[in-house]
Amino acid sequence: MREWIVAGNWKMHNTVAESTALAKAIKEGAVDIKDGSVILAPPFTSLHGVSEILKGSDLLLAAQNMHYEDKGAFTGEVSAPMLKDIGCSYVIIGHSERRKYFQEQNADVNLKIKKALSSELTPIMCVGETDEEREKGITQEIVGRQVDHGLKGVSRIENIVIAYEPVWAIGTGKVATPAQAQDVHAFIRKILNESYGKAANGIRILYGGSVTKDNIGDLIAMGDIDGALVGGASLKADGFLGIIREISGKK
Ligand code: PEP
Questions:
Q1: Residue 216: CB within 6 Å of ligand 1?
Q2: What is the pLDDT of residues 26-68, one digit of tens each?
Q3: Does any ligand 1 atom lie closer than 6 A to the CB of residue 176?
Q4: What CATH number has the domain bearing residue 22?
Q5: How remote is the CA of residue 95 from the centroid of ligand 1, in Å?
Q6: Residue nearest atom 2 of ligand 1, based on CA coordinates
Q7: Cα–Cα distance for residue pair 209/213, rounded to 1 Å
Q8: Distance 209 CA to ligand 1 centre (A)
Q9: Which of 105, 176, 179, 194 sits in a 20 to 30 Å window from 82, CA-based?
Q10: Is the CB of 231 under 6 A from ligand 1?
Q11: Which domain holds residue 63?
Q12: What share of residues in the chain are helix, strand, coil (percent, to 5)?
């Protein structure tokens, strides 16, 4: 059985004071929830403050991105050892906003995935098609390539989480139907199965894209949806806790 994950991606929101207040409210609200993992991904500037708040709780800390080198002349970048040092155990890799606005390619994603794994950070690798790609009927081709290229040369996938986030659903209020999401999740598991055999059955595949406490119930009922990567709805404790409660106990 796969344990569920709910991860909140705060993107470029929240000062340190706002982040720590939000983390505290989520920590207090999630205190009795033990059957899965709750992960918070604040902006870099808030990682330390949120890390301090999460100490002694079961909540986990993630970064939203990282560089694939340990150190060097890479102005503005942050490395895996730095993230470990500050208390991260997860890192989001290849979010569609990084692909779209910062020209991140599958090859960059692949280098970051390998670095995260060798640094004992669990990568949450994001994949997903655009509206246009879905309309052209090439969703599987796009997502399949992102998975294959992102994991190229990775021999073990036990410590990887995948997030299927259709680009057209992110921040748009246009959530994928449970059937649409399940189709792609099952496809991802099938291709992982072809490359990694039975290990693929243990991989958590999260859905992301306009998830709220009102729509997550039907999505999480799908066999291959193991949790959610949440953007907008993770910025308010009530909404995020509502999603966690909908998922908790159902998986
Ligand atoms: C995201 O950014 O990963 C995301 C899923 O955003 P939203 O929930 O706002 O669509």
A1: no
A2: 999 999 888 899 999 999 999 999 999 999 999 999 999 999 9
A3: no
A4: 3.20.20.70
A5: 9
A6: 231
A7: 13
A8: 5
A9: 105
A10: yes
A11: 4-250
A12: 45, 15, 40
